[in-house]
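Table S2 (text version). Query chain:
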Amino acid sequence: MTRQVPILRQKELLIASVQEELSDSEILDLQTRILEEIAHKPTKHVIVDVSLVDVLDSFGTRTLTEIASAVELRGARMAIVGIQPEVAMSMVLLGLTLETVPTALDLDDGIALLKRAS
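Corresponding structure-token output:
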């Protein structure tokens, strides 16, 4: 059974809260759902909260970067928030980066970051 990441809408802000490590098909489902949300309702900002995630592998990292690029092509901005210290260190050791995607410590910082960039 595929788990769906909850996506909350607050006016022109979407917040996707990843509750646990996602399989490849689940992260692709998240990508589809975010882009469908943006297509149907005006969206300025998207935040993907990964604060409960223990592992971000190369596929997940690449897909999050692709989601951010697609979101930007639709006229919105995306940030990833809540990367845990251990996850960040593992990503660095594996050579994984999110250099084109803004990151922030938590949801409040992510919202402020995106509003400043608007």
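Notes on Table S2: The mean pLDDT is 94. DSSP finds four helices and five strands in the chain.
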